[in-house]
Amino acid sequence: MSHGYRLGLTTLERRRIRGDLIETFKILTGIEKVDMEHFFEFSDTGYNLRGHSKKLTVNRCRLDSRKYFFSNRVVRHWNKLTQEIIDARSVNVFKNRLDRHWQDMGI
Fold first, then answer.
1. 3-state DSSP call for residue 78?
2. What is the pLDDT of residues 54-94, one digit of tens each?
3. Which of 17, 21, 27, 85 would be a feasible disulfide site paired with 81, CB 3.0-4.6 Å?
4. Domain of residue 60, residue span
5. Is residue 7 in a domain?
6. How many domains does the chain have?
7. Per-residue DSSP letters for 12-68?
8. 54: closest CA among 32, 100, 96, 85?
9. Which pTM was predicted?
């Protein structure tokens, strides 16, 4: 797991990614009352055996700074999740499944 070496602490980068994924889940499930189209666009490649049914499109950026915006930096991580994680019925279930998945993957 991507922890601090001596104290077993989660790295700042891992906490940021986890927070981004939780916020993305809340936006896409309507828990956050924002227009998801301002942030994300679903991929139209269709659902296949890899990944899950709610893949997001990576937006091309002309400006280098734009690629670090929340809506761009989270897509790669979101698209790597499994269908089981995406299908969570609550934020807490999503968090638990995400943490378990990362633990199983040794991340």
1. helix
2. 888 877 666 666 667 788 889 999 999 999 999 999 999 99
3. 85
4. 12-105
5. no
6. 1
7. HHHHHHHHHHHHHHHHHTTSS-S-GGGT--B--S---SSS-S--BPPPP-SSGGGGG
8. 85
9. 0.80
